[in-house]
Amino acid sequence: MVNKTMAVLLLGASLAFASSASATMTQDRDEFENSDTAYEYGYSTTSQFGNEFTSDVKSVSLDNVNMTSSVPLTIYQVATSWGKSPWIEDYVGQVLSSNFSQSITLTFDKVVTGFSFLGMANNEGNTLTFSAGGEKLTLNSNSTDNPGGGDYFAWFGKGISSLTISTTDNDGFAIGKVSVVTNGQAVTPVPGPEAGAGLGALALGSMALYMKRRRKEDAAVA
Q1: Which of 21, 43, 177, 204 sits at a 20 to 30 Å CA gap from 222?
Q2: Is the pLDDT score of 63 beyond 50?
Q3: In whole angstroms, how far apart are CA 181 and each of 20, 135, 219?
Q4: For residue 217, is pLDDT > 60?
């Protein structure tokens, strides 16, 4: 009986922690667009975020998902604001600048199961890091002054409500051509820092409680 009970508790803990293990980071747009989550829910791509030169932007509409930034952003047009040649993938749309902030956290009003963007630091010799769903992708970044520069970042996996983009560049970074996949569910608060971590702690706590109770019973019998 003891062994069976412990096995059930350990299985519950394993399943809880396994919930965050299916996230995937990629630099392959085809892999992102052909992923199971994109196939099931579809994806939308946003290249226009509002009026050019608008600063202090905290909220952006990505089709049917509202995205909120932890820091104010500024909208620029690649071709006119910077007078540059197209970015990677011949992108000439708008970008969101971090305004010298080295890190931004983006939160969503709906559960997101996929997210991708083009991004680059403002100066050569820096990296850009994309963190989502427990995964990270760090790439060396070309400068915004380098025509045709930029990198493609993508993630898909279990539903999340926020993600982070950061850089080693003191002057910040910019992102554009943002794609998002959502299952359409509204984001609701969950207990603990992460749902998976909470479930794992609950399973391990239950196992410890069982063992403590078992020891007391054995002591009483003896």
Answers
A1: 204
A2: yes
A3: 17, 17, 56
A4: no
Q: Which of 85, 97, 101 is nearest to 54 (CA)?
A: 97
Closest CA to 152 of 21, 18, 45, 6: 45
Q: May I ask the CATH class of domain 27-188? A: mainly beta
Tokens 């909220």, located at residue: 59
The Cα-based distances of 39 to 34, 77, 113, 180 in angstroms read: 6, 30, 11, 12
pTM of the model: 0.74
Strand ranges for the chain from DSSP E: 24-26, 44-46, 57-62, 65-77, 94-97, 103-121, 126-132, 135-141, 151-167, 173-186
Q: What would the two tokens of residue 41 be?
A: 């829910």
CA distance 77 to 83: 9
For the segment 3-38, what is each residue's pLDDT rounded down to a tens digit?
Answer: 544 443 344 434 333 333 356 999 999 999 999 999
Spatial separation of the C-alpha atoms in residues 22 and 67, rounded to whole Å:
23
